Each structure stands twice: as structure tokens, then as C-alpha cells.
């Protein structure tokens, strides 16, 4: 049973460019959450997708956008990259339900470096 | 705004020592509480969770945590640590409203167990 997979593993971009990160959820999961983890900090919630809609968004600018496909996989897009966007981007999947009482399964992350 | 504090960023213990990692949160309503662990080179994984009921919850690998509502705390404990417990530990909180799916994370505690 494959767990959560993310691609690419590492990415180097230049300021002002755009980037797309990809995530495939664990089998049987229909909800995908994205997190940004800066060095030495805990993950910060970017947004969550359920039924191909953004269900909730954290405190991130509109430069961060996403998409969920009918097979539940998801993409995170970041436009106009800033140096401060350098971080580990984590994808987590879970089973959709009302409320926040759920366990999330995490992927290995994509390390984004903006130069 | 909700926040989660983990007061110890680095902890170094010898094998067989007892462990307690602190976690405090700022939210006055119903909460769902989690401890996640990240072993070196591995993904974040759930250690234990509290949704309701018995405030003393047991997780994997001999870990337990106690929810003390009056202190807004959810401290992680293990009576006797092993070298294999070397990892980074994160506390996370979800404000238990039906429409809230966001996890707020602490900054993490890096635990090193000396053999």
C-alpha cells in the first residue's frame, strides 16, 4: 500500500519564477492538506482540498494556489517566488469528514530553494 | 490567534531516563490534540492523539500524553527512553469546530538519546 508521495524531491528556482509541486494521497484517502515548514519551525497550514475544492486556507497570500484532481491527487502552485518561500513543503492526506478530528499521513516533502 | 508552544527546543537524555516534553496551546474551546514524530530520514508520523474521553492517552512505542484542560497542556511522556527515540517531536492542535480542519503546530523538540 503506497503512502503519500510527493514530487519532485528537491527544486531550485529563481526569484520571480513559478513552481508546481505534486502530491498523491495514500490509497483510500480523499483529502489533501499542504504545509510549509521553514527551517527550525513546525509546519504551517497552507490549505486543504476536499472534493476538488479548497475547503480551508491558512494565512498565506494568493500567490499560493492549489488544485485537486478527480483521483484525489493535488498540486500546489506558487507564483512570483520570493526568497522567503524557501522551505520544505509537506503534503498530508486524510479521510474527509466534518471537523478536525482526523489523522493525517505525511509525504516526504519537497525541498524548495529560491535563489 | 491560536498558537502552540513547545518550550524545549532541544533535549538530551541518557538511555533509560524518563522523558517529558511540554506542549501548551492557546484556545479556550474544544480541541483535538496530536503528537507527531519525525525519526531521522523519515516522514512525520502520528505518535498519539486525543479527541475526547480519558485525558491520559497512550500511543505507539510506549509514549503517553496527558491532557490537562485547566492548564491548556498536552505533555508527552515516556518512562524510559531508548536510543531509537532520537527524533523530532511536534505537538499539534485543532480547534474542534466542525468547520475547522487546520492543524496549528508547535516549533518542535529535537530529542537526542545518548547510548
Which labels suit this protein?
heterodimer, A: 115 residues, mainly beta, Immunoglobulin-like, seven-stranded mixed beta sheet, four-stranded antiparallel beta sheet, globular, B: 115 residues, six-stranded mixed beta sheet, 12 strands, 0% helix, 50% strand
Topology:
The complex is a heterodimer of chains A (115) and B (115).
Chain A: E1 5-7, E2 10-13, E3 19-24, E4 31-37, E5 44-50, E6 53-57, E7 64-68, E8 74-78, E9 87-94, E10 105-106, E11 110-114
Parallel strand pairs in A: 2-11
Antiparallel strand pairs in A: 1-3, 3-8, 4-5, 4-9, 5-6, 7-8, 9-10, 9-11
Chain B: E1 4-5, E2 10-14, E3 19-21, E4 24-25, E5 31-38, E6 44-50, E7 56-58, E8 64-68, E9 73-78, E10 87-95, E11 104-105, E12 109-114
Parts with pLDDT < 50 across at least 5 consecutive residues of chain B: none
SS-based class of chain B: mainly beta
Count up the domains of chain B.
Answer: 1
The CATH topology of chain A comes to Immunoglobulin-like
Q: Gyration radius of chain B, to the nearest Å?
A: 14 Å
The total count of helices of chain A amounts to 0
Amino acid at each position: 500500500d503506497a503512502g503519500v508521495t510527493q514530487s519532485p524531491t528537491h527544486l531550485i528556482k529563481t526569484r520571480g519564477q513559478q513552481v508546481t509541486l505534486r502530491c498523491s494521497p495514500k490509497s483510500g484517502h480523499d483529502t489533501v492538506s499542504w504545509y510549509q515548514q521553514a527551517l527550525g519551525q513546525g509546519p504551517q497550514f497552507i490549505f486543504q482540498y476536499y472534493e476538488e475544492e479548497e475547503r480551508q486556507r491558512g494565512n498565506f497570500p494568493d500567490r499560493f494556489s492549489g488544485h485537486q484532481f478527480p483521483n484525489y491527487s493535488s498540486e500546489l502552485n506558487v507564483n512570483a517566488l520570493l526568497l522567503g518561500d524557501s522551505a520544505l513543503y509537506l503534503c498530508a492526506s486524510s479521510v474527509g469528514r466534518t471537523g478536525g478530528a482526523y489523522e493525517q499521513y505525511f509525504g516526504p516533502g519537497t525541498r524548495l530553494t529560491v535563489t | 490567534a491560536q498558537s502552540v508552544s513547545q518550550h524545549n527546543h532541544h533535549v538530551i537524555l541518557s538511555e533509560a531516563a524518563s522523558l517529558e516534553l511540554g506542549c501548551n496551546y492557546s484556545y479556550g474551546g474544544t480541541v483535538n490534540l496530536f503528537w507527531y514524530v519525525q525519526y531521522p530520514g523519515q516522514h512525520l508520523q502520528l505518535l498519539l492523539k486525543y479527541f475526547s474521553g480519558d485525558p491520559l492517552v497512550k500511543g505507539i512505542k510506549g509514549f503517553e500524553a496527558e491532557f490537562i484542560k485547566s492548564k491548556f497542556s498536552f505533555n508527552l511522556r515516556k518512562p524510559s527512553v531508548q536510543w531509537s527515540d532520537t527524533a523530532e517531536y511536534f505537538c499539534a492542535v485543532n480547534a474542534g469546530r466542525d468547520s475547522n480542519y487546520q492543524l496549528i503546530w508547535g516549533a518542535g523538540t529535537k530529542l537526542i538519546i545518548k547510548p
